[in-house]
Write a structure and sequence with these properties.
Strand content: 5-15%
Strand order of the largest sheet: 2-3-1-7-8
Mean pLDDT: 93
Distance between the termini: 52 Å
Shape: flat
């Protein structure tokens, strides 16, 4: 029998042409996850899993991998006993065929008891396979399941992958695991940097992999270490140049995916370009050339950039000069667009919006602007914003989309609107709103600061959500082309975090009514409300709110997100009380009792029918708490209200200990149910604590 305690380190590496930089981390994680899943299915234990990802390679190292599956007994089920023997007790053909299939005599079969009677069976001993037999299929299956939208072929091969494959390495301990991976026979060799060390490098064992590549191959295979190295280099050369580097995390990840042996180099550009808005220069540097920018001690953008070279050049000045030559045309374009766009006011761009379709069934961007003019006024009124400012901000909100600058640098939408509005002396609030309407642009981004910006941002997001949802294009899976999920979360974040007391359901209805051809019935309003509120599930989970606590509030369907937030806080506070568990259980019991009633339950309690001391005490306790709790609920002080209601715990416990609810006397039974229903409904004005 094989020694099941034997383990060896395992390594697999796929060598390719340069992989898509924005997909590299995702591919690496998926590759490792697929291998992990395959090992679980194969029942092979293992230790730590390490991922490696560089432009020309995906690799996974697994420590202490079990080298042999355990033997196991597999029960094979045959025919039912009553069909296995004839009237004389002789084995039927069905039983004989089953025995032959198992490779044994009929006498060696066993009987097993099941819910459907006695069946014939055989316990087959299945020998465990060596890991070397299983690993090729596990690796191939993982590669086949990678999230690759479009696979490519190369040469005359039928093999498909995200990029052409040049080698495959697979080791278990010091031994090569023989296999064909993406058209290549596995070996114990890898390759180093394309220019510094293109020769084959022998990997003697998995633990040597990263160090061999680093010391002999000019490759830092560990993605996170490479990213940390780039960050350190960028910050260091920026300090040497007298500035502070601003490192965008997405750009850092992309640059890390583009380089195996990163070397930071500082370049310069003409200071005359600094007359262009810094966001435009940064977009040109980062978006087109993957450069990092830096700020001086005065907080202003410096006429310098930092590029990451994938080679340790013997002549760094030539690398610097080459990058300076490349960036100049990009910055010249930005300056040209800036100068051209300012030759006309923002209003002149408005008619051009009629030529751009927002969505075929929802009209053009001009149609959207017209809706926003009305909707922003509606949102802004309770926020104290004048209708004139709301209309003006909405009217200019999409004009910069027609500018030359945004046409070239789409990520500057809103930003350029702000600059152009300032140039034509719009009010500060209007200019800010044109930029802030897109906030929050990403998780953790700032929210619109002014009331006008908040009104426009809410209106913009709500118009998109109701329109796209209203024509039936509901986000499914990974498909969300209009980013409705992000818009919905941004919408409620603004309302909650800026404490805007707005009725979400009314705004949904109002927004739907502005769309031609969309019927704004209650069902559609409910669906959109549920979609938007559901975005808060993860939002609150990040704040330590449990799924049960969230659900306790969600089922009450508060129309105001601010109200929703206050209830969440109340439920969190309640959950920490000693009475929480008991009262939650009691409310579950009450809810279950109420569900069993077919008819109606009296709205009032008949005191004369309260005969038991425990039910009389519960009624008195309820009456004493009702007024104060109702007052607190009306004032939306839900935390104080639910703490007050928690005082009823003792009376509720005694009631269920001493009183039978479902008695034969119908009047008494319904009266007791009415009492319990009033308690349940009072709690329900805050949350359904039966769900905790």
């Amino acid at each position: 029998m094989a020694d099941l305690t034997m383990t060896e380190d395992f390594l697999v590496e796929i060598g390719t042409e340069e992989l898509p930089p924005k997909a590299l981390k995702k591919l690496s994680q998926a590759f490792a996850d697929g291998i992990r899943a395959g090992l679980v299915e194969a029942e092979l234990s293992h230790g730590e899993v390490t991922l490696y990802a560089a432009p020309r390679r995906l690799a996974v190292k697994i420590e202490a991998l079990q080298t042999q599956q355990a033997d196991k007994i597999v029960e094979r089920k045959g025919p039912a006993k009553k069909a296995a023997f004839d009237a004389d007790g002789n084995p039927t053909k069905a039983l004989q065929g089953f025995a032959r299939g198992c490779g044994v005599a009929v006498e060696e079969l066993i009987e097993i008891d099941t819910e459907k009677g006695v069946w014939m069976a055989y316990n087959l001993e299945q020998k465990g396979l060596p890991a070397t037999r299983l690993l090729p299929d596990i690796v191939n299956q993982s590669l086949a399941k990678l999230p690759i939208p479009k696979r490519m072929r190369w040469g005359n091969s039928d093999v498909e992958f995200v990029r052409p494959v040049h080698w495959a390495l697979m080791l278990l301990g010091e031994d090569v695991v023989p296999a064909t991976i993406l058209g290549h026979q596995t070996s114990n060799t890898t390759r180093g940097h394309r220019f510094h060390a293109p020769q084959e490098l022998v990997i003697n064992q998995p633990s040597d992999y990263a160090n061999t590549l680093f010391t002999q191959g000019y490759v830092q295979a560990d993605f996170e270490k490479r990213a940390a190295d780039i960050r350190q280099q960028v910050e260091a050369v920026a300090r040497q140049a007298g500035g502070v580097a601003e490192i965008d995390e997405e750009l850092l990840e992309e640059v890390t995916a583009l380089n195996e042996w990163p070397v930071a180099v500082v370049g310069d550009f003409d200071e005359t370009f600094l007359a262009v808005p810094p966001e435009a220069l940064i977009s040109a540097m980062a978006g087109h050339q993957k450069y990092f920018h830096m700020f001086g001690a005065d907080g202003k953008l410096m006429a310098k950039f930092i590029t990451i070279s994938n080679i340790e050049s013997s002549n760094p000045e030539s690398v610097k000069f080459g990058n300076e030559r490349v960036i100049r045309p990009r910055l010249s374009d930005a300056k040209f667009f800036w100068d051209q766009d300012r030759k006309q006011p923002l209003d002149d761009f408005l008619p051009r919006l009629k030529t751009v379709v927002f969505q075929q069934k929802l009209g053009t961007l001009f149609d959207k602007v017209e809706r926003l003019e009305t909707l922003t006024v509606k949102v802004g009124k309770p926020l104290g914003v004048s209708p004139e400012l709301c209309e003006r901000a909405a009217r200019l909100s999409k004009c910069d989309l027609m500018s030359e600058m945004v046409g070239e640098f789409p990520d500057l939408q809103g930003v350029m609107g702000r600059y152009y509005a300032q140039q034509q002396n719009e009010t500060a609030d209007v200019a800010e709103a044109l930029d802030a309407q897109y906030q929050p642009r990403f998780a953790g981004d700032a929210l619109p600061a002014s009331a006008l910006a908040q009104a426009l941002a809410i209106a913009d997001k709500l118009d998109t959500i109701t329109g796209i949802y209203g024509i039936g294009q509901v986000p499914t899976g990974d498909k969300d082309p209009f980013a409705l999920r992000r818009a919905a979360l941004g919408l409620v974040r603004i309302m909650i975090e800026k404490e805007l007391d707005l009725d979400l359901r009314l705004l949904i209805q109002y927004s739907l009514d502005l769309h031609d051809g969309i019927e704004s019935g209650e069902q559609l309003i409910d669906e959109i409300y549920d979609f938007i509120i559901s975005r808060l599930r993860a939002y609150y989970a990040d704040q330590g709110v449990t799924a049960e606590q969230f659900e306790a509030v969600r089922v009450c369907r508060p129309a105001h997100p601010v109200d929703f937030a206050k209830r969440i806080q109340a439920v969190k506070t309640f959950a920490e009380l000693d009475a929480a568990e008991s009262l939650s259980a009691a409310n579950k019991r009450i809810n279950n009792l109420l569900k069993k009633i077919d008819g109606s339950i009296p709205e009032t309690v008949n005191e004369s029918l309260l005969s038991e001391a425990a039910e009389q005490a519960l009624w008195q306790e309820l009456e004493s708490l009702r007024e104060s709790a109702s007052s607190l609920i009306a004032g939306r002080d839900y935390t104080a209200a639910i703490q007050s209601l928690a005082g009823i715990r003792g009376a509720v416990d005694r009631f269920f200990d001493d009183v039978m609810v479902m008695v034969d006397d119908e009047d008494v039974r319904l009266n007791r149910l009415a009492l319990l229903n009033q308690i349940y409904q009072l709690f329900l004005q805050v949350a359904d604590i039966s769900r905790l």
